[in-house]
Amino acid sequence: MINRKAVPKTGPLVILSNHNNALMDALLIATSAGRFSYFLTRASVFKNPKFKTFLKSLNMLPVYRVRDGWSSIQENNAIFEYCRELLHNGKVVALFPEGNHNIKRTVRPLSKGFTRIIFETLNTYPDTNLKIIPIGLNYEQADAFADSVSMIIGDSLQAKAFVTDNRNQDILGLKETVTETIKTFTTHIPVETYDSHLETLQQLEVDFLNPKAVNKCLNSNFEDCSFQTRRRPKTVKQVFKILMLLALFVPYLVWRFIVKPKIKEIEFVATFRFAIVISLVPVWIVLIAFILAVCFGEIAAFYYVLFTLATSLLAVKL
Asked: For residues 80 and 115, is the Cβ–Cβ distance under 8 A?
């Protein structure tokens, strides 16, 4: 993580980030930004009652879009009013202004919903010292296991600096500033050349965790690509991955043949895999450890747990 010290420790704050990897983006910000945050999330993911309860427990608030139906759009008024009150009370509201998630390495046009929250907060509570923090999330390969990610945090922006007598210009100015800032913090491949440029970058084996170098390469039309390629011990990593899967073969089979085939959007692969890891995997480890302890003694159970944790750590970190 780069520039974490830029996040104010107190006071009202709006966090704005690109959105590539569904719930994983929110979890990364929640655990790394250093502030207790409320997240605005597209309303469609709240349709499942059980998932809705889980999301609300994470302080996620539904935001409705036109595709959710014109009648539901009015429900955003209450959500935005709640956000204004949160900010007035010095809380943090985090959102993904692209409006949806997409695994592609490009910054999509920002919706103006976040500008509405910011300007309405300042209009209702003009003395609020509201700050804005832009963030860029960069995944090495968002749907892969195990993936790596870098988080680049920008310096805080004073929301009041964007307020003039022309609200339309204020909105455009804020959107442009946030867009250009996030583009420097994450790899931005233009839509019109996306496939060809992505293929070239992959051939060059660029480090997508270093967007500054990647964007420099792109902006120079691949003439200035003087960056160091990250080398990893792939064979050794694969060995530990196989050992980990042997130790966790039942959770892996559940993931591979039951859960993963039902995932319709690639952006949710990491989210559901994470759900398996924090739910089924601990249960499996405790169960096997208990069986080993009963049949072969506590030492056997201890070595199984140690082996599982060690191989999992090495499979992820190498």
From this structure: no
- Render pLDDT for 112-163 as a digit per residue (tens, 0 to 9): 889 999 999 999 999 999 999 999 999 999 988 888 999 999 999 999 999 9
CATH class held by domain 4-186: alpha beta
Residue 310 CA to residue 312 CA, distance in Å, equals 5
Domain ranges of the chain: 4-186, 190-231, 234-317
Q: Which residues of 169-198 are buried (b: 16+ CB within 10 A; e: fewer)?
A: ebbebbbeebbebbbebbbbbeeeeeeebe
Is the backbone of residue 205 left (phi > 0), alpha (psi -120 to 50) or beta? left
Give the pTM.
0.90
> Which of 239, 233, 270, 241 is closest to 255 using CA atoms?
270
Q: Is 22 left (phi over 0), alpha (psi -120 to 50) or beta?
A: left
